[in-house]
Amino acid sequence: MTDLIVGDIIEGAVSDFGSDGEGVVKYGGMPVFVPYAIKGETVRVRVSYVKKDCAFAELIEVIKPSGDRIKPLCPYFGKCGGCDLQHMSTPLQLSCKRDSVKVALKKFADIEADVAIPVRLNDWEYRNKLALPFAYNGRSRRISLGFYQKKSHKVVPIKYCPLHGQWAADLIEVVTDWANEFAPSVYDEDTRKGLLRHLVARKLDTLSVTLVINGSRLPHCDELIKRLKEKFDRFTFYVSENTRADNVILRDVRLIYGKERKQNLGKFCAKVSPKSFLQVNSVIRDALYDRAAMALDGFDGDIIELYSGVGLLTAQIARRLPEAHITAVEIEESSHMDAIELMSSLGLSERVMNVCDDAARFLASLPARKRFDNVGNLDENIKNSPYYVGDMFADEDKKRALILDPPRKGCDGNLLKIADFDRIVYISCNSLTLARDLKILSDRYELEDIKLFDMFPQTANVETLVVLCKKT
Which CA distances in Å does 125 have to 48, 70, 80, 203, 452? Predict the structure, then answer.
């Protein structure tokens, strides 16, 4: 390895891509990761951080550009941490995402997979959710909203984002004008003082707005609602009191204005609480869930879905498989309640049991419940319990399928070690944790199908759907 120090300026050819879409320059055998550099280019870079076996650098100049380099649409690109790939053509973005999944599966799970280019159905204005921290803008001390710079908590002020619709620009303008006129203080992570923390919003049929505050009272709240009324026809306004010093944005939310309404969610309509998980790209979400439901066509056993959210995939599978019994497990109570209401509205409550529980804890409890079900007739109080799973697990010979859609950190390792199912459908937004989890399952399961969906255009992230079947 060649010794590099912070501040060194080097030139070289970009020979590959990293897992986050950054270019890789080999310098004396050491890989140097360079954001916004493209494979095949010759670049000049400044070293910003050095580790034992690799280094990181900032792009200074593209000496020889790639034919796939394009002009980014957004003026904040390269400053805020929201996008990674706006400088790449669409075909290169998609192949880069495909290759990152293939490399992760090979490197961390020893799986050679034939992976197709991701399905992309939109490029811009696809995000239905916005979460922005408040900050003071430089010496002016003007209150602004923005995204964090990558790998930092420094806020880059923005007025709009092309990944969101015009609704986001209008909302940012209303909220920042209100904040600067009435001058509430902004939260400081070091001192833990200041009131305004985050603006969180979701735009479906109607707009949901949540202000996260470090306190119990929001001064001039009525004035903010008045201004929102002037800009938006229908909206709900919530306040979330969050006084904790961690990275969790939303705590308990309190409805201040408006009425919660059912939203159009593709094949269904349902209420979606501010804390409920919902895929940010509605168009791709529908395509992804269609494919996941197809993976269970003809399956005549019982189904457990973990990390089930508000129940969209649950309902889709229940509709597609009219004989199926599904147990849907979700730890977030607001999502759990939304799912119960959705199943009731669709007439699926008889075949779908919603459980509010930790995924690993629930799965670990199943053997005991199976033995308990085998004792015969049970008291009605037990059968009416929200944790009673009926006779669906009593027959050891009956087939079972597992659906997983965990957060970015992936599944609990203990959950995967005890999983005993004939079929597993795994949806992942992080190829690295997916590969780690597939490695744990690889001694008992084999890969049957894999398909990529571009849930996050202009970023290095991609959604992966994997179907596994039990080895015979």
Answer: 33, 19, 17, 11, 20
Residue 442 structure tokens: 């690889």
Could you tell me where in the chain the CATH 2.40.50.140 domains are found? 1-68
User: What residues does CATH 3.40.50.150 cover in the chain?
Assistant: 282-470
C-alpha–C-alpha distance, residues 10 and 55, integer Å: 12
Structural contact between residues 249 and 200, judged by C-beta atoms closer than 8 angstroms: yes
Instruction: Report the alpha-carbon distance of residue 10 to residue 334 in Å, rounded.
Output: 52
Selection from 418, 391, 158, 166 nearest residue 306 by Cα: 418
129-270 CATH fold: OB fold (Dihydrolipoamide Acetyltransferase, E2P) (2.40.50)
Token pair belonging to 238: 């919530």
pLDDT at residue 81 is higher than 90: no
CA distance 144 to 172: 9
Q: What is the pLDDT averaged over residues 34-58?
A: 96
1-68 maps to which CATH number?
2.40.50.140
Provide, rounded to the nearest whole percent, the portion of the chain with pLDDT above 90: 82
pLDDT value for 3: 85
Instruction: Determine which of 127-131, 217-221, 268-272 has the lowest per-residue pLDDT on average.
Output: 268-272
> Which one, of 468, 461, 471, lies nearest residue 101 by Cα?
461
3-class secondary-structure state, position 428 = strand
Per-residue pLDDT of 262-309, as tens digits, reads 999 888 888 899 998 899 999 999 999 999 999 999 898 899 999 999
Question: CA-CA distances (angstroms) from residue 218 to 73, 183, 213, 234?
Answer: 36, 11, 7, 21
Give yes or no for a contact between 270 and 341, defined as CB atoms under 8 angstroms apart: yes
CB 274 within 8 A of CB 208: yes
- Provide the token pair at 377: 């007739």
CATH class of 282-470: alpha beta
